[in-house]
Amino acid sequence: MIVENQMQLTEAVVHEMGRTQDPRVHEILESLVRHLHGFIREVRLSEAEFDAALRFVTDLGKLTTESHNETRLMAGSLGVSTLICLLNNGKTGAADTSANLLGPFWRKDSPLTPNGGSILRSQTEGTPLFFKGTVTDEAGQPIVGAEVDIWQASTIGLYENQDPEQAEMNLRGKFFTDEAGSFAFRSVKPSGYPIPTNGPVGALLAAQNRHNFRPAHIHALIYKQGFKTITSQLYSSDDPVLETDAQFGVTRALIADYVEHKGEPAPASDVTGPWVSLAHVFVLEPGEARLPTPPVSAKATLAPQRVAAPVA
Ligand SMILES: [Fe+2]
To answer: What mean pLDDT, rounded, does the chain reach?
Structure first.
């Protein structure tokens, strides 16, 4: 179709895409073109702004490596990851859900760890944490043999894939739920951490006067045939940036009370000072068991520069 003018251009593009065989691909691409053209008209995007936008997208790709995923980080920073999560879980957003965004730091093949075992694989500062999780179906019945991946940042605010000083797979572990649908592990109480700001995500946050911190949390990915695979995060209720999470992940259903214990015997005899415990029930919906594409697959050779936490 010959392009007559800017308004008719959209119809010309949609018309040419009419040969798309797959109906779902057709639906998605036609809607994408209509919204994208509509957005450009609405903000009257200039040529200089278009040029900057293309550089922005190019940099997302350039910065994404086996140890860092800038595209996932951007999806979170725009609220898109959480929108996708809430649209596809919890009865398409009508009910609370254990699901939460995957984030950019899940690695496949976490070390299989016995129930109750530690996920500390190198010296890691922090208050000892004893965690117990239970996985149930929507009727509250325990799900036996669910595969649970756990991962968290160290208390200096780095995942092991970002930090050459941590052991391979430190603060990561894979568990299977027992006959009661439960699993347990030992770790340290998580801390909030800064997301990297050396690329487009940093530029976005700076332009919007947003800090780059996430509230303290532990991640879980739960996989069992017959149920919809979920990723989850449990956010510490005492964290000062719950309301301003740089990745927009905090939902009320996933704010967790880490219980402090002082002067009480810990579940492990080597712990003599204060410790914390956390118990949580994860609920799976019926659906497809499908693992996501791992955002990262290896450790970085250089640690990112440290930045100060925001003042709440
Ligand atoms: Fe995280």
So the answer is: 94
